[in-house]
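Tokens as discussed.
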């Protein structure tokens, strides 16, 4: 629950008179320490939350959804995975001007709870991933690459080829064998073929 001192502290955060910040350890602490060695000193990175909202005389509107972006130190390895060491980070509110809609903001008075939701994204390098000016979000899914189009085209052509082989090799001959040939009649004594009867010409 939001107490009276914390409510006025939130006013400073929303009005950007004071930063809402914390610090995160850059890496997990070691599970074991060797005897006689210097103790491990934890390094921290700052994380500032840009809490957005609007201030009123008797209440305030606060955007309750926040995006958190964390960057890790590049891993010098053949596989481009995260190194697990934090390099930097930031957090900011989303849709701060939609308090009238009530989608992701809350009308807050003293004594109310303040639920916050976070969308966290990790980037394997300190830089935002960009390709030719287009932002490429890592790990969010829903991407269409050239390889996706290529594999889709190959699958389509393979399906067409298999369907054509099955039709011309199985379906079409079976249908042709089951149909009559109009006025054709079996050739008596001339094998198993079909032919036309000879008619006398007057």
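Sequence:
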């Amino acid at each position: 629950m939001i107490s009276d001192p914390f409510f006025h502290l939130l006013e400073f955060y929303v009005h950007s008179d004071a930063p809402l910040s914390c610090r995160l350890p850059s890496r997990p602490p070691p599970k074991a320490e060797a005897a006689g060695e210097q103790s491990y000193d934890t390094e921290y990175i700052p994380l500032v939350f840009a809490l957005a909202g609007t201030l009123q005389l008797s209440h305030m509107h606060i955007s309750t959804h926040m995006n958190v972006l964390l960057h890790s130190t590049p891993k010098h390895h053949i596989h481009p995975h995260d190194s697990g060491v934090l390099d930097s980070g930031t957090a900011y509110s989303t849709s701060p001007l939609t308090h009238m809609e009530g989608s992701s903001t809350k009308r807050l008075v003293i004594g109310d709870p303040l639920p916050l939701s976070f969308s966290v994204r990790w980037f394997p390098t300190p830089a935002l991933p960009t390709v030719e000016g287009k932002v490429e979000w890592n790990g969010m899914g829903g991407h269409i690459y050239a390889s996706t189009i290529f594999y889709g085209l190959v699958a389509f052509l393979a399906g067409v080829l298999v369907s054509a082989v099955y039709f011309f090799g199985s379906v079409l001959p079976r249908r042709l064998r089951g149909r009559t040939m109009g006025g054709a009649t079996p050739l008596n004594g001339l094998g198993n073929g079909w032919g036309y009867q000879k008619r006398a010409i007057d």
